[in-house]
Design a protein that fits this description.
The complex is a heterodimer of chains A (about 400) and B (about 260). Chain A is built from 17 helices and 2 strands. Chain A has about 400 residues and is mainly alpha-helical. With about 260 residues, chain B is an alpha/beta fold. Classes of the chains: A mainly alpha (about 400), B alpha/beta (about 260). At the A-B interface, helix 8, helix 9 and helix 10 of A face helix 2 and helix 3 of B.
Chain lengths: ~400, ~260
């Protein structure tokens, strides 16, 4: 049985690899390609973050520190390559980033992981602030406001790969992203990974079965730093510039949001967050300047209605699917979707009118406001009823489901 | 000659201005089943917390199998061969029953903080966890999340986590607290099974359980051991009878005549 299980997993991983290979053929435009690259980087970053949050129970507000430091070190390494003082292929630069992240994880983690819970969160915030402040003070390393500019083609062409074209960079990111995913997943299946879960659940009991919870947290923090550094290095290669923003509080906050939106309960959950948030950031920002507001709304809705994130939303439907009861849900879901869409239309209309300041100008003569308000009221009224009916269907199903969980 | 598994010498503990433990002397012989009884608030659980390293002692010394463990950290004491359970269930709620047991044997089998080995390939860990699983009778709960077990099942798992590592000195803190009669009987049988060939020190309020399991009994009153002896000696002991008559609030604590 164990063997079959592993075969299933092998198929799954092959499928993931295939997706990485095929994606640029489907989304081949320049814009899509840079978005895919960005997604790959963010997937590594958010998965490394979830080693702390989801697996070890450490809520860090400063994970971008490791990402950023890895990125800066890589930028310098690439510049050394260009100056001829370092002979390392660009393809292996993520190792520089990873080792930088690992070293700082060991160093800073030694301090931060002394205490779990709120003190850890606060200390991580303090360290993030400290590093961000240093970034503006030590301008030789961090380049001040302008950051460090670098040239990803510095290594010249190796076997025809120069990293000039974006597609080559995409595949570099894809390879490292896939490797990191596999490795991070593998770590969850090792003694350390399992004990990290135990420490998350009950650090005291972990002590009484022989483990030092501080040591476990420290090791997980260092490994998370390693993978975050890989992500940072790839960001440097991708953008050819790195500024202090990359290790700032905004970046640290962003990864928290991605992890929660995707869901921290499953290994693959945060990846959904990374993909979705990147998509919103790059795509939505083309349509409206108010995209941050929508992003905030989405986060709010998820925390309120599905605290387990999108991945939890998916996984609670697996037993329903197995029990063959999904048909029962569809009408109420359709109802909720329709009414939700109408409400959303009203909300978006209202926000855009407010935001663009067209309250009394342009095509706006006040009727549009009435329409938006009407959409919100009517949509909201029926949405509330739709949610009620979704809830009732779930309750009706629960006895049948118990056997399938 | 009898060998001492656990020796407490003049152990004291004060919280703030209050002395909870006032010079406890206790010798647990290797291989015996020893019960620690006493009225509520006598300091039984505190004594356990001092032995297992949960709290530091204020004075005195504790040794385990001849080596000093005074004020050592819990994990260090555990690695030296002492394992304990808790009065309030203390498990890994979001891990499956099987994972709870696997986590409990990892250190003892030498895997430490390894992140280069696959758990599924560790046959000794699996076998050891499965053995404990059978022993505590939770085979059909193997993949269930520990937090979702019934109370009695969680108590069994609590004991399972404690004994899984194969430690030779076992401390059980009120293993049958809150159980029904039939559950208690099952727990007593379980305790007999899992402490075979080991040293047991147990805090217990249910005198039926105590007299069923213990080879020797120590009575703790106001932070001091007032008597140690076989169940019969304790039953006859004048000081013990007085101590128990003096604490009328403690119904479970009555010494059966």
């Amino acid at each position: 049985m164990n063997d079959m299980f592993n075969k299933g997993r092998l198929v799954l991983w092959s499928f993931v690899a295939l997706i990485f290979v095929v994606l640029p053929f489907i989304f081949s435009g320049g814009f899509s390609l840079s978005m895919l690259s960005q997604m790959g980087i963010m997937i590594i970053f958010v998965l490394s973050y979830n080693m702390l949050l989801g697996q070890t129970g450490l809520l860090s507000f400063g994970h971008a520190v490791y990402f950023g430091l890895g990125a800066f070190m890589t930028a310098h390494a690439i510049n050394f390559v260009e100056a001829g003082t370092l002979g390392l292929p660009i393809s292996l630069m993520p190792l520089i980033g990873g080792l930088t992240g690992l070293c700082f994880g060991l160093l800073l983690g030694f301090v931060t992981t002394r205490r779990p819970g709120t003190p850890f969160a606060m200390i991580s915030l303090g360290i993030a602030e400290m590093v961000a402040a240093s970034a503006l003070m030590f301008t030789t390393f961090f380049g001040g406001e302008g950051g460090i500019v670098t040239n990803r083609t510095a290594g010249g062409a190796v076997w025809g790969v120069s990293y000039g074209p974006q597609i080559q960079v995409y595949y570099l990111i894809a390879v490292w992203c896939f490797l990191s995913m596999v490795l991070m997943f593998a770590i969850t299946r090792t003694p350390l990974g399992r004990i990290a879960n135990a420490v998350r659940d009950n650090p005291e009991r972990a002590q009484f079965v022989g483990y030092n919870p501080t040591r476990v947290r420290w090791l997980m923090m260092s490994l998370a730093g390693f993978f975050a550094g890989i992500g940072g290095a790839l960001a440097t290669i991708n953008y050819e510039i790195i500024t202090a923003e990359a290790l700032g509080l905004m970046a640290s906050g962003n990864v928290v949001l991605m992890a929660f939106i995707g869901g921290i309960g499953q290994f693959w959950g945060p990846m959904i967050g990374a993909v979705l948030v990147t998509l919103l950031q790059s795509a939505l920002s083309n349509f409206t300047q108010a995209w941050l507001l929508y992003f905030g709304l989405l986060f709010l809705l998820i925390i309120l209605y599905s605290p387990g994130g999108i991945s939890n939303l998916i996984s609670i439907h697996v037993p329903v699917w197995r029990a063959g009861l999904i048909k029962k849900l569809l009408p109420s879901y359709g109802y909720a979707l329709l009414t939700g869409f109408v409400t959303l239309l009203g909300v978006v209309g209202g926000i855009e009118m407010l935001y663009r300041g067209t309250l009394f100008g342009g095509i706006n003569d006040g009727t549009t406001w009435v329409v938006a308000a009407l959409l919100i009221c009517v949509g909201g009224f029926f949405l509330k009823r739709a949610i009620g009916s979704v809830r009732r269907v779930w309750e009706d199903m629960s006895p049948d489901l118990a056997r399938w969980v | 000659m009898n060998q001492q598994a656990l020796v407490l010498q003049d152990v004291r503990k004060r919280f703030g201005q209050t002395d909870i433990i006032n010079g406890v002397n206790l010798e647990i012989v290797a291989g015996e089943r020893h019960a620690l009884i006493g009225p509520n608030g006598a300091g039984k659980s505190t004594t356990f917390n001092l032995i297992s390293g949960r709290f530091p002692v204020s004075a005195g010394s504790i040794s385990l199998n001849g080596s000093d463990i005074t004020n050592k950290e819990p994990q260090v004491i555990n690695r030296l061969g002492l394992s304990r359970s808790f009065q309030i269930t203390n498990i890994f709620p979001k891990l499956s029953v099987f994972e709870n047991l696997r986590c409990s044997v990892l250190w003892a089998l030498g895997y430490r903080y390894s992140f280069f080995r696959r758990m599924s390939a560790l046959n000794d860990v699996r076998e050891s966890a499965e053995k404990t699983l059978t022993m505590i009778g939770l085979e059909n709960r193997r993949e269930k999340m520990a937090g979702e077990l019934t109370y009695a099942e969680q108590r069994a798992l609590e004991i399972g986590i404690t004994i899984a590592s194969g430690a030779n000195v076992i401390l059980l803190d009120e293993p049958t607290a809150g159980m029904s009669r039939s559950e208690t009987d099952a727990a007593v049988a379980l305790i007999h099974r899992v402490t075979e060939g080991k040293t047991l020190l147990m805090v217990e309020h249910d005198m039926g359980v105590v007299f069923n399991i213990a080879d020797r009994i120590s009575v703790l009153v106001y932070g001091q051991v007032i008597a140690t002896g076989t169940p019969n000696e304790i039953r006859m002991n004048k000081k013990v009878q007085e101590a128990y008559l003096g604490s009328e609030s403690d119904e479970d604590g009555e010494v059966p005549a």
